[in-house]
Write a structure and sequence with these properties.
Distance between the termini: 50 Å
Organism: Flintiella sanguinaria
Number of domains: 3
Largest sheet: 4 strands, mixed
Strand content: 15-25%
Strand order of the largest sheet: 2-1-4-5
Keywords: Chloroplast, Nucleotidyltransferase, Plastid, RNA-directed DNA polymerase, Transferase
Helix content: 40-55%
Pfam family, one: RVT_1
Number of helices: 16
GO molecular function: RNA-directed DNA polymerase activity
Protein name: Putative reverse transcriptase/maturase
Length: 456
């Protein structure tokens, strides 16, 4: 167990020097990564063992899970979503005194929540204590695999995001060499990953026993206990990492090779971009796309997975394809004959989902003060616009602003059936920066944000 300097002895939660804790955690992660990258596995394993026992890693795990983690408000079986400083300190002392070898993870509580498409999907929720232990294990395991993961993997990885994935697809399509697309959809990926394959891949990791227990812990639904013979522990922060580990090797199966600058060698037939369990393969010909489908089907089968026959498609890039809520398509450039441009726009599905979300919020404001409704609308608008502002979203933004205008008119007409048009407009709309149609709440002065206010 690591020691803190005399000037930074731990007495209570409020006495913690977070700069020092952060420095120590980053030090562990960097050292593990560099040791594996240099091939010094023995040293890397020793650092992983130290990280698993580290007070700093444990403290950071509690901080992330109970205070700053975006998912902290998700109800857990122990009814705790937020902890006071005193309870966080108590949790720290409890886990510090535990023997993790003897720790038995409780079954997850599984509930059904509505998806964006209106259907229900299962959500499993670990306890606060279980999430913290997952963070500690992840902190030791993730740097090892970050030193190994393939270039085309973008989902749930530090320093990578969706926008990096679109740039890679855009760059590959713009070269016009790989214009046949395999859209891959792995059927029930998180529910069907082979435990045997996953545990074999982490066989020498010091806390592999802990991951094995999580995988086998099962779940509770309506007070009935169910075993889990396959799949990862959904709802936990380590699950996306485990999925990435199980899917590692797809590029190797396709014999994809890179130059040092990250660009694909031109003699290769394929370019693969994967975000968690969603992926696309850009191919030089239709035959290559068919071959890629066969190769990846065989690869996934070894991990207990298979491609969805209905959702796995092959098409030419000029027909367009969707990935991560964007549509990618090659168009003929009318200004330059015999040349094509790559256009990336928000997908029809993404537009339908945000319209449905906005519609629900507008309806919730009927007969109520408008300030809470506008705040909720602005939050939805900001999130969606920030996600899509790096692509050609001008048309989509204008369409959504028009949608909000119509929803606003419908709302105020329903609330004031006897008032004139001029009265409605003067009360609920104002001019801002040469825009005469900004919906607002007069009492609070809060304006409805326009999608078009975000630069593209």
């Amino acid at each position: 167990m690591e020691n803190f300097p005399q000037s930074h002895q731990l007495q209570s939660w409020d006495s913690i020097d977070w700069k020092l804790v952060d420095k120590k955690v980053k030090g562990y992660r960097t050292s593990i990564f560099l040791a594996f990258r240099s091939g010094d596995v023995q040293r890397a394993r020793k650092i992983q063992e130290n990280a698993l026992k580290s007070k700093s890693v444990l403290l950071m795990g509690i901080e992330r899970i109970t205070l700053v983690n975006q998912g902290r408000k998700t109800p857990s079986p122990d009814k705790q979503a937020y902890l006071s400083s005193e309870r966080r300190w108590s949790l720290f002392k409890t886990i510090l005194a535990m023997d993790l070898v003897k720790y038995e993870p409780p079954p997850l509580r599984r509930v059904s929540i509505p998806n964006q498409n209106g259907k229900l999907r299962p959500l499993s929720t670990p306890t606060i204590l279980d999430r913290v232990i997952q963070y500690v294990v992840k902190c030791a395991l993730e740097p090892e695999w970050e030193s190994l993961f393939e270039h085309g993997s973008y989902g749930f990885r530090p320093g990578r995001n969706c926008h990096d994935a679109i740039f890679s697809i855009y760059r590959t399509l713009s070269k016009k060499k790989r214009r046949w697309i395999l859209e891959g959809d792995i059927k029930g990926c998180f529910d069907n990953i082979s435990h045997k394959v996953l545990l074999e891949r982490i066989e020498t990791f010091p806390a592999n026993y802990m991951i094995a227990k999580w995988l086998k812990a099962g779940y509770m639904k309506l007070s009935i206990s169910y075993d889990t013979d396959s799949g990862t522990r959904q709802g936990g922060i380590i699950s996306p990492l485990l999925a990435n580990i199980a899917l590692h090797g797809m590029e190797k199966a396709l014999d994809i090779k890179y130059f040092r600058d990250g660009s694909i060698k031109s003699d290769g037939r394929y370019s693969l971009i994967r975000y968690s369990d969603d992926f696309v393969v850009m191919c030089k010909s239709e035959d290559d796309a068919q071959q890629a489908k066969l190769i990846l089907s065989e690869f996934l089968e070894k991990a207990g997975l298979k491609l969805s026959p209905e959702k796995t498609l092959i098409r030419e890039a000029n027909k367009g394809f969707d990935f991560l809520d964007w549509t990618f398509q090659l168009f003929e450039d009318k200004r330059r004959k015999q040349q094509e441009i790559t256009l990336v726009t928000p997908s029809k599905k993404a537009l339908a989902n945000i319209r449905n979300k906005l519609r629900i919020i507008w309806r919730s404001g009927i007969g109520k003060p408008h300030k809470p409704m506008i705040k909720e609308l602005n939050s939805a608008i900001t999130g969606w616009a920030n996600y899509h502002q790096y692509v050609d979203a001008n048309k989509a933004f204008s369409s959504l602003d028009n949608f909000n205008y119509k929803q606003a008119i419908r709302l105020i007409r329903r609330q004031h059936t006897q008032k004139s048009w001029n009265w409605l407009i003067s009360k609920y709309f104002r001019s801002v920066d040469y825009d005469n149609w900004v919906f607002w709440d007069k009492d609070s002065g809060l304006n409805l944000t326009k999608f078009r206010s975000y630069r593209i």
